[in-house]
Design a protein that fits this description.
The chain has twelve helices and no strands. It is an all-alpha fold and about 300 residues long.
Length: about 300
């Protein structure tokens, strides 16, 4: 029988994969139709910041125990810098690239970060998985840089890789920040909204939110603000708390497939041969790299509140 912490973590990781894919698809749709990256960022961080505001003032108010650098990485990796990189990249590269490059590189960056921070060894089946991911992404990147997705697709791919590196750092930082998932979501979204209001919005001109069709705004507000900004961040933090950052990266396994198929069905994006080859290597690689084959219940696993 599965340990309760392990089961909860796996369910949270599964939920995170569906939410992550939905966010990628809706973001790509938004920035290529009626809205821009800054508009989506405002919804992505502003709505959950307002909904979680009571956590800043209640009896269980946020009281981070981590150092300032760790908290800065927490916000940068899961907040505004991460979001703007992804949303800007979505203007240039197809949604399938977002799924493959971000989901594929996340276990790579997480493994490197865990090795740098705790000298965690990467060997055996995990190393084989990371090798599969690297080969699949290299082949896919070669097609992109040759112009397989147009002259600007590679720009988005690079931004996705940087964003994945930030998210991996966010995962490792959350494991040491002393916050519950709900507190972590409030902290990241609150500071992201503050940074957006002070450093970005004053120079961004008139928001497209004021002129965009209301169905588009409603779709983005629901998906960006509630589903991704609130629920997505919380369930991923639950996965990290119950499984640890390297294992939580297993949530990325389904994202490339879901995003690629969703983009083909919803936005008529072609499923190229290069994408199929990349998926056949990256998805199994993510599963192997997570170490899922050798999982055992974790003793003393942290309880998410």
């Amino acid at each position: 029988m599965l340990d309760r912490n392990l089961l909860t973590g796996l369910l949270a990781a599964l939920a995170a994969s569906f939410i992550g894919s939905a966010w990628q698809l809706v973001s790509r749709h938004g920035v290529t139709t009626t809205l821009g990256p800054i508009d989506l960022a405002l919804l992505r961080y502003g709505i959950p910041a307002l909904l979680l505001m009571p956590l800043w003032f209640g009896r269980e108010r946020i009281a981070p125990k981590a150092s300032l650098p760790v908290l800065a990485v927490l916000v940068a990796g899961g907040g505004l810098p991460f979001g703007l990189l992804v949303l800007a990249g979505a203007q240039w590269a197809p949604a399938s690239h977002m799924g493959i490059f971000m989901a594929g590189s996340l276990p790579l960056f997480t493994a490197v970060g865990a090795w740098l921070h705790k000298r965690q060894k990467i060997e055996g089946i995990r190393l084989a998985g990371l090798a599969c991911i690297a080969i699949g992404m290299a082949l896919f990147a070669a097609d992109s840089f040759r112009g397989g997705t147009g002259s600007t697709g590679w720009r988005g791919d690079l931004l996705f890789l940087v964003a994945a590196m930030l998210w991996a750092a966010h995962s490792l930082a959350f494991a040491h920040c002393g916050l519950t998932p709900w507190q972590g979501a409030a902290f990241v979204n609150g500071w992201s909204t503050l940074l957006l209001s002070m450093l970005v919005l004053p120079f961004a001109g008139v928001p497209k939110l004021l002129t965009a069709p209301w169905p588009d705004v409603a779709l983005q507000a629901t998906t960006q603000g509630v589903v991704a900004g609130l629920l997505g961040l919380v369930v991923y933090m639950v996965a990290v708390a119950r499984l640890g950052a390297p294992r939580a990266s297993l949530s990325a396994a389904l994202v490339p497939v879901l995003t690629t198929l969703g983009a083909a069905a919803w936005m008529n994006e072609p499923v190229t041969g290069a994408a199929l080859v990349a998926l056949s290597l990256v998805v199994p690689g993510i599963v192997l790299a997570s170490g899922a084959a050798g999982w055992r219940p974790r003793r003393g696993a942290r309880t998410a509140g």
